[in-house]
Design brief:
The chain is mostly helical. Helix content is 68%, strand content 0%. The longest helix has 22 residues.
């Protein structure tokens, strides 16, 4: 991952650790509300690729009743390029988690 000085402005804005950490925090809260437990660490790495990619975000179900694997079966186009997006966003997810842990809002 590039240093802040080397990042294009668009990337610095979109992948800003504060912004990404808010997305992660909302996912954590939603998971805790539904499951009454903490979110598994590996699932955190699915959040940014799901919500930052506009086509994927627009295809997300409106309720949490739909299971992820069922939704993926009904939305095969979402799987195209998902692995690459998820892999690309790992450093940004880690950066956002580190940012949030420094503030004490997210803890393990």
């Amino acid at each position: 991952m590039r240093s802040w000085q080397e990042r294009p402005v668009e990337y610095a804005n979109l992948f800003n650790p504060a912004f990404c950490s808010i997305l992660l925090q909302n996912a954590i809260k939603g998971y805790q509300k539904e499951k009454k437990q903490g979110i598994p660490y590996p699932l955190l790495f699915l959040v940014l690729p799901l919500v930052l990619h506009i086509s994927t975000r627009n295809a997300l179900p409106k309720t949490t009743v739909t299971k992820l694997h069922i939704w993926l079966q009904k939305q095969p186009e979402v799987r195209v390029g998902f692995a690459e997006r998820a892999s690309y966003l790992v450093p940004y997810t880690k950066e956002a988690l580190a940012f949030r842990m420094q503030t004490g809002i997210i803890n393990f």
